[in-house]
Amino acid sequence: MTTTMKLGLGAVLAVVVALGSGWLWGSSGRWDAEAAVRDAHLRLRVADARGALASARVDLFELNYGQASRHLQVAKDALQDASQRLEADGRRPEAEAVRGALTKTVEAQQLAASVNTASNERAAEALRELDRASGASPAK
Fold first, then answer.
1. Cys-Cys link to 56, which of 16, 38, 68, 74 (CB 3.0-4.6 A)?
2. What stretches of 2-139 show up as alpha helix (H) in DSSP?
3. Could you tell me which CATH number the domain at 31-134 has?
4. 77 vs 73: CA distance, rounded Å
C-alpha cells in the first residue's frame, strides 16, 4: 500500500469514528426524554379518565344519565389507551389494574344506559381501581 492510500483510509476511518461518536453523544439523552414524554402522556390519559369518572359521578347524583354516559365513554376511551400503553411498556400489573377500572367503567355505562342508580357505585369502584393502578390514595 502506498502512503497516500494509507492516509486516505485513515481519514475515512477517522470520519466514521467521529460521526459515530457524534451520533452517540447527540442521542444519549434522547431515550430518557422519550421515556419521560411517554410517562407524561400516560399520566395525562389516566388523569383524563379520573376526571371523566368524577364528572360522571356528579351527573349520576343529579340523575343526568345521558351526560353521565358521555363522561363514562370519555373515561372508557382514556382507560383503553392507558391500558394499551402500559401493556406496550411491559407494565403488566398496572395494565391489569387499569383494565379492572375499564371493566367497572363499562358496567357503569351499561347501568347508566338502563337508568339504574347502581351505575354511580360502579363509577366509584372504577375510581378506586384507577387509584390502585396509580398508587394513589383510594377515592371515597
1. 68
2. 3-27, 30-61, 65-88, 92-113, 119-134
3. 1.20.120.660
4. 6
